[in-house]
């Protein structure tokens, strides 16, 4: 790669790195960096880093050129307005979604070729409307590289490209979710000291708290915040004797 351009073969065919990334990067997959965060689909391409990112990655790319990738009939598309700042998109058929014109990134070959009059894509023979001859940006690039051997006349200089105003940034997550930390537990461990004005009273309170947890968690799931398999029979007997005392039977008549 030289000055952000890929050189293919010995004929000096040049393709910008961002265009190669737009065609090869995977979008609408979970971001490995923010895999535990909500709305972590990678739907943005950073043209300066040539990589796909998710909305949570924006803070690290806020000064870079960014373009949003959208989905239309299960294919990746980009707004025509954004692409035209980077490359000549003439003769590429555009489609309208949400009041915005978009262009398919990759070619969409049809299962069977239609015969008859009309316009067809130069690369994948897809039926097109007049006067278009390319069904996607990838088809036009392939056509230009095949016939002209160079994309330079069709590339445009773009020093700044920001996301469109309709791009939705996920609302701020909670502090625990943003730092991927587990929230602190509210259960107090019996082995940890508990702050109190009186040491003896604090120990008594802790003992009463542990006893209460034993009573409520008779099933043996948790005892004082620690996981156990079951409460021993000896502890159960001791607890029962403290509450009710030793039972006495009436003498037989």
TrEMBL record:
Which source organism does the UniProt entry give? Answer: Vitis rotundifolia
Q: Where is the composition biased (Low complexity)?
A: 194-206
Q: Which domain of life is it from?
A: Eukaryota
What protein am I looking at? B box-type domain-containing protein
The record's region (Disordered) falls at: 176-206, 233-253
């Amino acid at each position: 790669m030289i000055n952000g351009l890929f050189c293919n073969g010995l004929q000096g065919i040049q393709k910008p790195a961002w265009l190669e990334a737009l065609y090869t990067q995977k979008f609408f997959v979970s971001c490995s960096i923010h895999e535990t965060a909500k709305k972590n689909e990678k739907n943005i391409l950073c043209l300066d880093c040539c990589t796909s990112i998710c909305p949570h990655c924006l803070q690290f790319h806020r000064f870079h050129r960014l373009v949003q990738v959208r989905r239309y009939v299960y294919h990746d598309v980009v707004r025509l307005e954004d692409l035209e700042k980077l490359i000549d998109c003439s003769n590429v058929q555009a489609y309208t979604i949400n009041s915005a014109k978009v262009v398919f990134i990759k070619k969409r070959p049809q299962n069977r070729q239609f015969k008859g009059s009309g316009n067809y894509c130069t690369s994948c023979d897809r039926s097109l409307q007049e006067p278009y001859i390319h069904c996607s940006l990838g088809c036009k690039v392939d056509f230009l590289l095949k016939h002209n051997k160079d994309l330079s006349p069709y590339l445009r200089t773009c020093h700044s490209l920001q996301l469109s105003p309709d791009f939705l940034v996920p609302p701020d997550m909670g502090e625990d979710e943003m730092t991927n930390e587990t929230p602190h537990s509210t259960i107090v461990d019996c082995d940890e000291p508990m702050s109190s004005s009186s040491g003896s009273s604090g120990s008594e309170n802790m003992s009463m708290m542990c006893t209460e947890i034993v009573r409520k968690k008779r099933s043996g799931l948790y005892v004082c915040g620690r996981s156990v398999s079951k409460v021993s029979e000896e502890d159960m007997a001791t607890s029962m004797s403290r509450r009710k005392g030793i039972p006495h039977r009436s003498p037989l008549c």
